[in-house]
Specification:
Strand 3 and strand 4 form a beta hairpin. About 65% of the residues lie in helices and about 20% in strands. The protein has one domain. By secondary structure, the chain is of the alpha+beta class. The chain has a two-stranded antiparallel ribbon with strand order 1-2. A two-stranded antiparallel sheet has the order 3-4.
Length: about 100
């Protein structure tokens, strides 16, 4: 390989990694949502915690560390909906990015 090919490959890899980072930032911000007077992040850990609880009403700390009494089932449904929507959109855009490579 000559130097021009190496430079070209390096620039392509950098551009790909930059686009991947942009997607991550874009979709991670969409996972944050407000509900029941608190600010929450839809992620696997939060969904697992909500699923493991048995009480209908529980007190949780939101992203600002405020204790909030919530309806666990409604919050779980909203969290699942947001998580699935965002992750499906992210996956779709990510696969398009991978195919451009």
């Amino acid at each position: 390989m000559n130097v021009d090919d190496l430079i070209s490959q390096t620039k392509a890899k950098f551009s790909h990694n930059l686009a991947k980072f942009y997607l991550q930032e874009k979709y991670k911000s969409r996972l944050t949502f407000a509900d029941q007077n608190g600010l929450w992040e839809a992620n696997q850990t939060f969904i697992s915690f909500l699923s493991s609880q048995t009480s209908i009403e529980i007190v949780l700390l939101d992203l600002y560390e405020n204790p909030i009494k919530v309806d666990r089932i409604k919050l779980l449904e909203k969290t699942n909906g947001i998580y699935n929507e965002v992750m499906n959109d992210w996956y779709k855009e990510f696969t398009e990015l991978q195919n451009k490579r």
